């Protein structure tokens, strides 16, 4: 009779044979005996989950391109052996610094083996600590590093960006009586190659071959040449190839393709074709992927003639051209202004039954529109639609621009409506040609209707109008822009940015009074910003209204803003013209303290003032010579800096020596020299008078002189 299963209310004694496991299907719980009373669990029935039918509207195409972030990988120290973890913990307890406490911990171990050293160095990021540990291990009695420990130290140094120290490992190995093998040099070359350090690759290669006499194999030669060609060192790469042939090695297909790509990048097409010929004779013909890579390199370099020569070579070899090669060639020709040749290849591609990508259509349409062949561009659009594609926004933008260039505004507007009807979202590039064409034709009613349409479509109208006026000013000048703006003001399409664009454009053509009248009109409608005041400062200085310009400068400061560099430069020159030298130098200091990259003449102004402290005209002339070598011209700010520095720190005689030197070298005319010398004397008198007044105030004599009826002192 089989033993009965004990009831749950009678607990068993939990010995070795009677301990209960967690029940599962594959490991049933043993109750009562070693092989008896096996209780089998019935599998739990899973509920039937009803899957929803797939709906294309709920599909998110960006789900696969934006996967959920992966959990961080486990720390590499968790995979260490116990002794290696003990060493790493000893480093960590002492803040990863080599000290006597670390040495004491390491001495607790009977011996640290080379493999253990390599294991510890693989997880180290502190190069100083790793080097100390490496040398400590080498000082153990009877210890010798193996290749693994040397390689681990090289990787550790490279991780810490100490690649120059890593390059010295071959010498260290040689001094330890273990000459480096090809593997050690391969590691260093791979490190430098991955970091695009071509010259370092050549340094290690030269050391390997000429100093240690290790001859690389073919694959390592390929890696060295690839690194040198990629970093633009074609001549060094070809010298390595000469060494390759000198060693009697035979080229592989990879070797030939590296040479071909390098020569393509260097523009040496004849030599490249010669290498291709040798490749055909000795090994094999390049495939379509190799030729496509060559075409891509030459297209990127802009050498379209060489592209066509490579294309002919590909046809001569009987290589079947794939769609990728066609696309690379057609797009390159279209971008390079040789659209007709690209179009011929396009027709050849279509005749072979290849599927033409929409990008090819777009580049050809863009090139035809740029060349004024809008009819051919529309033929491509029809072909695109008949092929089952939908034209994208860039294609429509090009076609609208082409129609506007031909003054076919009605058709351009209809195409704009088609763009909206197809569900595309037009942007400023779509409407820019229409807006400019309407303004040039003075068709402002249609212009305003287009603005209303843009507003309904959700365009930021005022921001786009600012861009439009920038384009119109650049293309046709400010006069037409001001006329167009006069119509828009009636509709309320005004903003500070538009006023700034127009004011600045009027100032640049010398219409300062018109710019100021536009500024006055703007003030009556809205509050100007710092850009407006910066433009107005330049206008006022050119008209000689320096006081008004200073008021505008103060307005900017009250707004907690900074004037533009052009405003600083203009106002400083204006102050120097009217003899306000101290105020001009204060403005120079304020500019250099406020902007990130101030004018070079402002920087040299402070350098000149500092040189004046020596009261030596030769030092000041040396600063001026350096300034002119840097391409900076001498202006009244520089001359005012000489006057300010010499009046404060030097003498009138030394200042006159500087001006005389400039006069002898024809940097100053005789009349300008006289003007600046008079300004020097006046400024010196003013500074002297200021010092006298300060001394009278300091000694309390000012009130006594006023009591005696002195009228020389200011009230």
Question: How would you describe this structure to a colleague?
Answer:
The chain is mainly α. It has a domain at 77-180. The chain has helices at residues 82-93, 100-107, 114-121, 127-138, 147-159, 163-166, 169-175, 182-194, 198-211, 218-230, 234-246, 253-265, 269-282, 288-301, 304-316, 323-335, 339-351, 358-370, 374-386, 393-405, 409-421, 428-440, 444-456, 461-476, 478-490, 496-508, 512-523, 530-542, 546-558, 565-577, 581-594, 600-611, 617-629, 636-649, 652-664, 670-699, 702-707; strands at residues 29-30, 38-39. A two-stranded antiparallel ribbon has the order 1-2. Strand 1 and strand 2 (38-39) form a beta hairpin. Helix 16 packs antiparallel against helix 17 (339-351), helix 31 crosses helix 34 (636-649) and helix 33 packs parallel to helix 35 (652-664). The protein is extended and about 105 Å long. The model is unreliable at 10-19 and 32-37 (pLDDT under 50).
The protein's oligomeric status is: single chain
Helix content: 55-70%
Strand order of the largest sheet: 1-2
How many helices does DSSP assign?
37
What gyration radius follows from the Cα positions, in whole Å? 41 Å
Give the termini separation.
132 Å
Anisotropy-based shape: extended
Report the mean per-residue pLDDT as an integer: 84
Tell me the major beta sheet: 2 strands, antiparallel
Helix/strand/pairing category: mainly alpha
- Strand percentage lies at under 5%
Query: pLDDT below 50 for ≥5 consecutive residues: which ranges?
Result: 10-19, 32-37
Number of strands: 2
GO molecular function: mRNA binding
Pfam families: PPR, PPR_1, PPR_2, PPR_long
Domain PROP1-like PPR: 300-456
PPR repeats: 217-251, 252-286, 287-321, 322-356, 392-426, 495-525, 529-563, 635-669
